[in-house]
Structure formats: C-alpha cells, structure tokens
C-alpha cells in the first residue's frame, strides 16, 4: 500500500480540526408559530410553537412578564404551549408586543409579534354584604395585608413544567351566577371588577381541580374564605374560593379532576357558591374561555436552527 505524504496527513488533520471548531451550518428549519392577531380585554389566548428540533431554551415576554415552557413531542415535532392573556382591569389597550427568544445548538434567535388588545364592555352588579366586609375593622387590616402578600407570592410562582392541558375541566356543574369582568358595587360603594367566575353550588358540593398541578397555597382568608391555589406550570395559577372545607395540602400534586374541597359560603359572600379564577403571567383572565380551546391565527417564522 502506498504511503500518503506527511504533508497530506497534516492538511487533512488541519481540515478536521477546522470543522470541529467551525461546523458547517445546517439547513434552515421552520418554526410553526400559532398566535392570534387580535384579542379582547380580559380573554386568555394560546401561543403554540412547533419545531422539528428540540430547542435548548425558549422564553416569551408579554406585558413586562416572562414565561418559559417545557416541550412535548407530538408527531415527530417538539411542541411548546403557552397561555397568555390580559386582565379586565388592563388600561394598555391597542397594539402590544409579544417577544420570543429561543436557543438552539448554542445560538440565540428571536422574533416578535404584534397583538391588538381590543376593548370589551362588561356588565355591573350590585351586592349587599355586611358592613365589615366593605370597611374591615382596624384589627383585621394586618391580617388582610398579610394574606394579600401570601396570594401575591403564590401568583408569582414560575415553573417551566407544563402540567395543564386544554380544555380545562369545569370545577363543578353549577350555572354561572356572576360572570367575569362585572363591575361590582358593595352596599352601593364601587368595588373592583370581578376577576373570576361564580358558580351556583349547594353547600358541600365537591370542587375539582381544573387541571393537573401543585397546590401552592391554602388558607382561610378574610375576603376569599377557605381557598386553594394551584400552580399548573408556565405561570398558570387557578384558584377556588369560599369553600366550606379543604381536602388538599400545600405542596401536594393533584391530577385533573381531583377533589380539592367542598363548596360553601366562607369569606365575603351573599350566599353559597364557588368563585373560580385563573391567573396567567400575573393577569386575571376569564376562566370560562379556558373550558374550551382558545385558538388563534397561524404564521410560519423561518430561523436557522
């Protein structure tokens, strides 16, 4: 066998070392990006990103908040789902920017998407409650402030594991007695808009988890009464108020449909019912929209990954 000259061996080794340090770029790949162009104030919406390659990281920025997601493999593609939304009390209507940052093979990529947030009118409701539920006594103010901080911390929970699936499960079978977004007047004094939905529920009705998740807070609070908060991942938190009893503990992982407690009339109420709410990225959204599948338009964004 003919021996190869030393100069050729050195050249081949040099080429190999070059390729190891500077790999040949792979072909451009497509990200399938699903997101609406228009949403109404107070409504949640779905953002879905699919890639034929698993991303090292992905981050969305929306209304000064950031959210991460873990992937699921579906039909040979990697899928990343996010639930975003706006609060009924939001004042920043009009065009809002959704930014996407992702990393693949050590390279960062990014793109943005404009979403029009449209105004929506909501009804009013007048309620009569005990005077101390409108103007709490002085000796309750410290308790209320402490509970507000506990709730704030719970709603700021951020985990990247996606535990939820759409559509969400209705927590019980009762009819809606007070919809999301209502302007409430307590004893003729204006209050904030309703951040959730009230369901008719006879005392002792089983209340179920709307999706899989981890219980991040339970308590007997001044306004909300006996309450349960569940983290479903990706900054999605559900909440259940005015219970008569709680059957789960903080830190417990629950499956969709697990019983969390029994309905009642604890806290600030005019009768027995369940208040059900969902917070996404710090925004209290209309939870009824998540009992179906909020969709959106589609776009394809080309990036080299």
CA-CA gap between termini: 43 Å
Please state the overall shape, judged from the principal axes of the Cα atoms.
Answer: globular
Elements, N to C (H/E):
HEEEEEEEEEEHEEEEEEEEEEEEE
> pLDDT below 50 for ≥5 consecutive residues: which ranges?
6-20
Percent range for helical residues?
10-25%
Report the structural category.
mainly beta
Biggest pleated sheet: 10 strands, antiparallel
Under the CATH scheme, which architecture of the largest domain would be assigned? Distorted Sandwich
Q: What number of structural domains do the residues give? A: 2
- Tell me the β content: 35-45%
CATH superfamily of the largest domain: Glucose Permease (Domain IIA)
The CATH class assignment of the largest domain is: Mainly Beta
How many beta-strand segments?
23
Spatial extent as radius of gyration: 25 Å
State mean pLDDT (0 to 100 scale).
Answer: 87
Number of helices, where a helix is a run of at least 4 consecutive DSSP H or I residues: 2
**What would the CATH topology of the largest domain be?**
Glucose Permease (Domain IIA)
List the helices and strands and how they pair.
Blueprint: H1 6-21, E1 29-34, E2 38-40, E3 44-51, E4 57-62, E5 65-68, E6 72-74, E7 77-85, E8 94-104, E9 107-118, E10 124-127, H2 141-155, E11 176-178, E12 183-186, E13 189-193, E14 197-200, E15 206-208, E16 213-221, E17 225-231, E18 236-246, E19 253-254, E20 259-263, E21 273-280, E22 283-285, E23 298-303
Which descriptors apply to this entry?
305 residues; Immunoglobulin-like; 2 domains; Glucose Permease (Domain IIA); 5-stranded antiparallel β-sheet; 45% strand; mainly beta; 2 helices; 10-stranded antiparallel β-sheet
């Amino acid at each position: 066998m003919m021996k190869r000259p030393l100069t050729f061996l050195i050249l081949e080794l040099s080429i190999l070392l070059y390729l190891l340090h500077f790999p040949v770029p792979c072909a451009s790949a497509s990200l399938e990006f699903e997101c609406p162009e228009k949403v109404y104030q107070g409504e949640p919406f779905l953002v879905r990103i699919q890639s034929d390659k698993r991303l090292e990281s992905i981050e969305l920025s929306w209304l000064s908040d950031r959210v991460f997601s873990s992937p699921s493999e579906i039909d040979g593609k990697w899928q990343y789902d996010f639930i975003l939304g706006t609060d009924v009390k939001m004042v920043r209507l009009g065009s809002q920017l959704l930014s996407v940052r992702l990393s693949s093979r050590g390279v960062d990529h990014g793109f943005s998407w404009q979403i029009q947030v449209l105004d929506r009118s909501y009804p009013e409701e007048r309620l009569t409650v005990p005077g101390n539920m409108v103007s709490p006594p002085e000796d309750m103010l410290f308790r209320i402030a402490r509970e507000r901080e506990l709730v704030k911390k719970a709603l700021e929970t951020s985990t990247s594991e996606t535990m939820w699936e759409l559509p969400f499960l209705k927590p019980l079978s009762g009819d809606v007695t007070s919809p999301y977004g209502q302007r409430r007047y307590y004893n003729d004094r204006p209050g904030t808009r309703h951040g959730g939905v009230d369901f008719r529920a006879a005392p002792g009705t089983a209340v179920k988890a709307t999706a899989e998740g981890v219980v991040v807070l339970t308590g007997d609070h001044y306004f909300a009464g006996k309450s349960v908060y569940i983290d479903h991942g990706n900054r999605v938190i559900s909440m259940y108020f005015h219970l008569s009893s709680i059957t789960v503990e903080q830190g417990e992982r629950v499956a969709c449909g697990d019983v969390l407690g029994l309905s009642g009339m604890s806290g600030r109420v005019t009768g027995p019912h369940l208040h059900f709410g969902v917070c996404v990225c710090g925004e209290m959204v209309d939870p009824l929209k998540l009992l179906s599948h909020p969709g959106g338009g589609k776009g394809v964004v080309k990036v080299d990954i």
